[in-house]
Write a structure and sequence with these properties.
The structure is a homodimer. By secondary structure, chain A is α+β, with helices and mostly antiparallel strands. Chain A is built from 7 helices and 11 strands. Chain A has 2 domains: 110 residues, Sandwich (Jelly Rolls); 78 residues, Winged helix-like DNA-binding domain superfamily/Winged helix DNA-binding domain (Arc Repressor Mutant, subunit A), CATH 1.10.10. Helix content of chain A is 40%, strand content 23%. Chain A has a 4-stranded antiparallel sheet with strand order 1-8-3-6. Chain A has a 4-stranded antiparallel sheet with strand order 2-7-4-5. Chain A has a 3-stranded antiparallel sheet with strand order 9-11-10. In chain A, helix 2 packs across helix 3. Chain A is elongated and about 55 Å long. The interface between A and B is large, with 44 and 44 residues. Chain A binds a DNA duplex through helix 6.
Chain lengths: 231, 231
DNA sequence: CAAAAAACACGATTTAAATCAAGTTTTATT
DNA sequence: AATAAAACTTGATTTAAATCGTGTTTTTTG
């Protein structure tokens, strides 16, 4: 974890989370004054499941995974989070501990916002509060989708699902650079590394995708969607 | 669906959801005046995934399942809901459709609360709003747990998990009557009916549980927890 | 209450995917 | 740049769990 430092201001932050747009200028300034900005290197742990939830985190720059830690290295990735998103909201009210861990997939910049201040803002500003609910609900719905795919679909279906999700929801492009190892991709789709390797080869051979190292490109979205549906 | 009728008042409702306790008397009366009370028979569909979210539902009496509908009868049960709980909150802000279906496991009574009124109350009453967030977060955390169990644990582990969850979270007793068919229990644990049948037999033989028809009793919680951990 | 249908149990067989094994490529380290 | 280590690929084998087949019990219905 690097030494805290601040750059820019919340007001000037171009990709801020939708809920912050609901704040008054004074409220945004309050956050700005009290936030801490921290840099993490690729692979560093940002949040540890089970620790006290003292902050809501804002991912200013980078890419990370949220995951549940189980026994014997059995991890379950809840979600991939691109920049502009909040982390830790499920700990805002209720049990004041973090329910998942977070790890940086690439070098990332995080703003730490004191959770009590965040709570106070949700009490003072109903618009902000309902936007927070909206964000929470989007995470819930997204995790239901993942839940469904992982528990009901076969290997090609799950991988097609992942490709579509990355392209549409995360990178918003049919071509993207994904800084994940095969091990991490396997974890993401709940399959073994070998099965992942095979499905990549198959999809490459059938020209559904083009994967070279960390370079991904969707070639046949229609067919991928079909595989996702039937799988 | 039966003809709407009302019994008692919200004020007198003994097992009301925690968020309603945060309302003023006037606000609670407002709900009371505008709510509809509907009865459902066992097996009836209460909510249909994909339909317009016009109400937040309150389960006054009964037991139901929330589930995601997939293709080819591939359903995924999100959660079992005992009385006193709200249904449809993930549709409060954001996409105004229901993201899951709900079916009555036993004869149930539901209060329908207009979603716009519910939204208005969350705008007017910050305490209410934060309690709603708390409830949403509990659902999220609970579904993460289920997510993890189903995607990472083997059959005995998943079934032990279910038994512990039913006993501790739903029925709050080591003895309970569960009005579910084997098919529904199988759906709940993402396994085939035959596998479920076998694990029930095994657990019965090993005296971990006593299951006779719909009568369930936990006999050896310690061992169940061990199986859940290792599975 | 009898007949039909549905739910359930359980052994045999199949199958999807994990594990194992061995080689190759890429990345990191001295 | 040479060596070691890690990451990745690919085929062979194993295995957990699904499916299939059949008999039994329970529930529903005319």
């Amino acid at each position: 974890m690097a030494i805290p430092k601040k750059t820019n201001s919340c007001k000037a932050c171009t990709n801020k989370s939708s809920c912050f747009r609901k704040l008054t200028e004074e409220q945004l300034e309050l956050i700005d004054k009290n936030r801490l900005e921290v840099s993490y290197k690729k692979g560093e742990t940002i949040l540890k499941q089970g620790s006290f939830a003292s902050s809501i985190l804002y991912l200013k720059k980078g890419l990370l995974k949220l995951y549940i830690e189980g026994k014997n290295d059995k991890n379950l990735i809840i979600s991939i989070i691109p920049e502009g998103n909040l982390i830790g909201l499920p700990s805002l009210y209720g049990d004041p501990i973090y329910h998942y861990s977070a790890m940086a997939y690439e070098d990332s910049t995080i703003c730490l916002i004191d959770i009590d201040m965040f709570r106070q803002l949700s009490q003072d500003n109903a618009q902000f509060s309902s936007e927070v609910i909206k964000i929470l609900n989007e995470l819930t719905i997204h995790s239901f989708d993942r839940f469904f795919a992982i528990s009901q679909k076969n290997i090609p279906g799950r991988f097609a699902d992942l490709m579509i999700c990355l392209s549409k929801s995360i990178f918003k492009s049919e071509k993207f650079n994904l800084p994940l190892s095969r091990k991490e991709l396997a974890e993401l789709t709940s399959m073994s590394i070998e099965s992942l390797s095979r499905v990549i080869k198959d999809f490459n051979d059938e020209k559904l995708i083009r994967i070279e190292g960390k370079e991904f490109e969707i070639l046949d979205l229609k067919k991928l969607q079909q595989i996702s549906e039937n799988g």
